[in-house]
Amino acid sequence: MSIDVQRIRAEFPVLRQQVHGRDLVYLDNAATTQKPRAVIDALRRYYEHDNANVHRGVHALSERATAAYEGARASLRALLNARSVREIVFVRGATEGINLVASSWGGTHVGAGDEVLITGMEHHSNIVPWQMLCERVGATLKVLPIDQRGALCLDQLDALLSERTKLVGVVHLSNALGTINPVSEIIRRAHAVGAKVLIDGAQAVAHMPIDVQALDCDFYVTSAHKMYGPTGIGVLYAKEALLEAMPPYQGGGDMIRMVTFERTEYNELPYKFEAGTPNIAGAIGFAAAVAWLSAQGVERLAAHEQQLLDYATERAAACDGLRLIGTASRRATVLSFVLDGVHPHDLGTILDREGIAIRAGHHCAMPVMQHFGVPATARASFAAYNTREEVDALFAALAKARALFA
Q1: How far apart are CA 318 and CA 355, in angstroms?
Q2: pLDDT tens for each residue of 242-272
Q3: What distance in Å separates the CA atoms of residue 222 and residue 97, rounded to the nearest whole number?
Q4: How confident is the model at residue 1 (pLDDT cuts 50, 70, 90)?
Q5: Which SS3 state, helix, strand or coil, does residue 203 take?
Q6: pTM (2 decimals)?
Q7: For 28-57, what is each residue's pLDDT tens digit?
Q8: Which of 344, 342, 324, 343 lies closest to 334 in space, CA to CA?
Q9: Which of 35, 81, 104, 336 has minimal Cβ neighbours within 10 Å of its Cβ?
Q10: From-to residues of CATH 3.90.1150.10 in the chain
């Protein structure tokens, strides 16, 4: 299961640079991953040779662009093992996917007295849309808590579920803690009371195989830029029957079949949810990222990343004054921590001067920070191109920071 890390690193041009006179150590992958040459080349190739709008043109460039765009949809269908390309909707990212579901499906199926259940480790993107929906229709937002390890309190799940629960929203892999949630079990228990389930997979898809049919989730969202693809493009998977019954999210070009001043007839799936000119280049770059991931083998990359996380966790345990935030038994890619006497933002600045890029802040998960009683954490997050030497560089820089503030 080992990978040739140096070969992989050679495919990422951005890594061949220095920051403040030091070789770049990029450990901010949970915020966004770097892009391999294959993705960069795919974007350039589209703009240099095939740039045209899709679906409506009869000239050669438009036909090539349309084929590439719809080929990207087919790539995402295969990656997630959806039943049909009709279940794959391109969106700006996981955030827009969740907002689409909350507005379209939620606006139709959630009403006064109903309940939406989320968890205590959700990204703001899987909190705020449901708050907005509940406030608008008079529903109640309920929260499944987390424990001091950063794991869900599953023993409380059945008590929170009822016939009033219309939807359960849960993150697959926490961006703030690295916790991998038992989504299959949550889906099964939610379905038992008739609730639909949305999985936020923004962090997960680059780090584990995903099979939406095996999971039996109703909705699954992810973003390309978390999985070596471009920014501004993501995908919403939803069961076809749900999408058929949902009203459009936005109105405009390409989501229509026929328009008069008296009425509009909407387009077939998935175009009913893709108003306006789409992010064609982004979808093509997304497909290139999927191809790159598939060629490397997601499971092989995940095994390498897990070895890095295990090594970093061992180093953290031996680091005086360092407290890990998130110690659940199943974790991936994320090492979140605080260092005595050093604010995470100061720590991020000091590490930057050492050429090391980490994330410092609340990670768009303020309730998680409140749960652990910290204003923010420092977060190192790993990807396929990271090495044990970079983990060592991280801890050497942490020792310098601690000495500086001592």
Answers
A1: 23
A2: 999 999 998 887 777 777 787 877 778 899 9
A3: 8
A4: low
A5: coil
A6: 0.96
A7: 999 999 999 999 999 999 999 999 999 877
A8: 324
A9: 81
A10: 5-28+297-405
Phi then psi for 13, rounded to 5 degrees?
Answer: -55, -35
Topology classification of domain 5-28+297-405: Aspartate Aminotransferase, domain 1 (3.90.1150)
Residue 128 to residue 131: CA distance in whole angstroms: 5
Backbone angles phi, psi at 290, to 5 degrees: -60, -45
* 319 annotated active-site: no
Beta carbons of 166 and 109 less than 8 angstroms apart: yes
Residue 381 neighbours by CB distance under 10 Å: 25
71 touches 63 (CB < 8 A): no
Token digits of residue 164: 């009033």
Q: Residue 379's beta-bridge partner residues?
A: 336, 359
What token pair was written down for 367? Answer: 């309730």
* Cis amide prior to 182 (ω within 30 degrees): no
Q: What type of residue is 310? A: D
Helices (H), 110-260: 128-137, 157-160, 183-192, 212-215, 240-245
207: left (phi over 0), alpha (psi -120 to 50) or beta: alpha
SS3 of 359, please? strand
Question: To which residue do tokens 């929906």 refer?
Answer: 133
Catalytic hit among 134, 153, 319, 364:
364
Q: Pinpoint the residues of the chain covered by CATH 3.40.640.10.
A: 40-294
CA-CA distances (angstroms) from residue 236 to 73, 102, 201? 11, 12, 10
Q: What is the pLDDT of residues 122-181, one digit of tens each?
A: 999 999 999 999 999 999 999 999 999 999 999 999 999 999 999 999 999 999 999 999
Q: 40-294 has which fold?
A: Aspartate Aminotransferase; domain 2 (3.40.640)
- Residue 296 phi/psi, 5-degree rounding, is -75, -35
